[in-house]
Design brief:
Helix content is 0%, strand content 45%. The protein has strands at 2-5, 14-17, 23-28, 32-37, 43-48, 55-61, 66-71, 74-79, 85-87, 99-102, 105-109, 116-120, 139-144, 150-155, 161-164, 169-174, 189-192, 198-202, 206-211, 223-225, 234-236, 243-244, 246-251, 266-268, 274-279, 283-288, 293-299, 307-310, 316-320, 325-330. It is globular.
C-alpha cells in the first residue's frame, strides 16, 4: 500500500484506471485532471481545466490514447501521452453526464439523462457531437456500462429497465422499487462492471446487485418502425420479457441517520465477480456476489473516502478522498 498525493488539496471525486492499468486518472473540482503512475504514484501530467467547478464522468477512449471528461462547460479531451487538453464542440451543459465508448464512438447522455448523443472518435481532434438519438419521455438515464453496451433508466410508472445502446430498445426490466418521481427526490447511483456482466444500484437504502447473463444475445424481437414518411426507420421492441432479480444485497449500515443519503462508492472486479464497497469508518469491504460472503476488508485510516476504482487486471485497488489523497494497494 502507498499513498499518492496530487498537486491540489481539493477532494478526489473520480478515479479511473487506463485500459492497460498503467495510469490512474483523478478528478478534482476547481483543479482538473491528474494522471498518476500506477507503480510509483508519481504525477505524470497535471491538466488544469480553468473555471470549472463541477465534473461528471471519465472515459478512456481510442485504446487509452485519450481521456474524456464531462464538465459544466462541456466535454474536454486529454491526450494521455502529452497531457494536451482540447474542448469538444458540445453546446449543451454537460455536468454530470455519463460517458461510454462503443465501436469507435463516444456515447453520452445529456446532463439530465433525458437523451443520448454520439460522436465519432476517428476524426482527429475535432470532436463534434450529434446524431441525436431521441428523447426518453418521462424517463431518466442513471448509468451507462463502460463498454457501451447497456444503459440503465428509470421511469415514473414502471420498473427501471436496461436498454441496448446500439439498437436503442429495452432488453430487460429490473426488479427494483425505484421510480422517477418529483415527490420523493430519492437519489440513486448505478455502477456497472467493466464487462457489463453485473451492475449495482444504490438508492440510499441498500446496494442491490443484478446479473445481466439472463439477457438473450440476439435481436430476433427487434423490428423497424417508421414514425412518418420522411423519418428514418427506428428500431423498436416490445416490452422486455426478461426481468432481472436481485442477486446480492447489502443493507444500509446501522447508525446512519435516516435523513442522510447513503450512496457509498462501489466498484466491481473486472469480471464482475467481486463487489468493493465503502463501509463505516472508511473501510473497504470485498464481497463475493455469487455466494454473498465477505472475502476481504481493508482500513487505511483514510479520512473522507469518496471514490473507488479497480485496475483492469484486478490486482490493484485505489481509493480517493479529501485533501487530494489517493491510496493504492495490492489485492492479492
Amino acid at each position: 500500500m502507498f499513498v499518492a498525493t496530487t498537486n491540489s488539496t481539493h477532494p478526489i471525486t473520480r478515479l479511473l484506471f487506463s485500459p492497460d492499468g498503467s495510469i490512474l486518472a483523478t478528478l478534482q473540482p476547481h483543479t482538473g485532471i491528474t494522471l498518476l503512475d500506477r507503480v510509483s504514484g508519481q504525477v505524470l501530467h497535471a491538466i488544469p481545466i480553468p473555471r470549472v467547478a463541477a465534473y461528471g464522468s471519465l472515459c478512456f477512449c481510442n485504446n487509452g490514447e485519450r481521456l474524456a471528461v464531462t464538465t459544466d462547460r462541456g466535454v474536454f479531451f486529454v491526450n494521455v501521452q502529452t497531457g494536451e487538453l482540447f474542448k469538444a464542440n458540445w453546446p449543451i451543459y454537460a455536468r454530470g453526464a455519463d460517458l461510454a465508448e462503443r465501436n469507435g464512438q463516444l456515447v453520452m447522455t445529456d446532463y439530465l439523462g433525458r437523451s443520448l448523443h454520439r460522436a465519432s472518435l476517428t476524426r482527429g481532434d475535432s470532436i463534434e457531437f450529434g446524431n441525436y438519438q431521441g428523447a426518453l419521455n418521462d424517463s431518466r438515464v442513471f448509468g451507462l456500462s463502460p463498454c457501451g453496451r447497456w444503459g440503465f433508466y428509470a421511469h415514473s410508472s414502471h420498473r427501471p429497465r436496461l436498454f441496448d445502446l446500439a439498437l436503442y430498445c429495452d432488453v430487460a426490466a429490473v426488479d427494483h422499487s425505484f421510480r422517477l418521481t418529483r415527490r420523493e427526490p430519492r437519489p440513486i447511483r448505478v455502477t456497472f462492471a467493466a464487462n457489463s456482466s453485473r451492475f449495482a444500484v444504490c438508492d440510499s437504502r441498500d446496494v442491490a446487485v443484478y446479473d445481466t447473463s439472463a439477457i438473450p444475445d440476439n435481436d430476433n424481437d427487434i423490428t423497424m418502425l417508421e414514425t412518418d414518411e420522411e423519418a428514418e426507420a427506428t428500431p423498436v421492441a416490445p416490452p422486455p420479457q426478461v426481468v432481472l432479480r436481485t442477486q446480492f444485497q447489502l443493507e444500509r449500515p446501522e447508525g446512519v441517520p435516516p435523513k442522510d443519503d447513503w450512496l457509498p462508492p462501489v466498484a466491481f472486479s473486472p469480471e464482475g465477480r467481486a463487489l468493493f464497497v465503502k463501509r463505516p469508518r472508511n473501510r473497504v469491504q470485498m464481497w463475493d456476489v455469487a455466494t454473498g460472503c465477505q472475502t476481504g476488508e481493508w482500513s487505511w485510516r483514510m479520512d473522507g473516502m469518496i471514490c473507488l476504482a479497480i485496475a483492469p487486471d484486478g490486482l490493484t485497488a485505489a481509493s480517493g478522498a479529501r485533501f487530494g489523497r489517493v491510496v493504492m494497494w495490492d489485492l492479492d
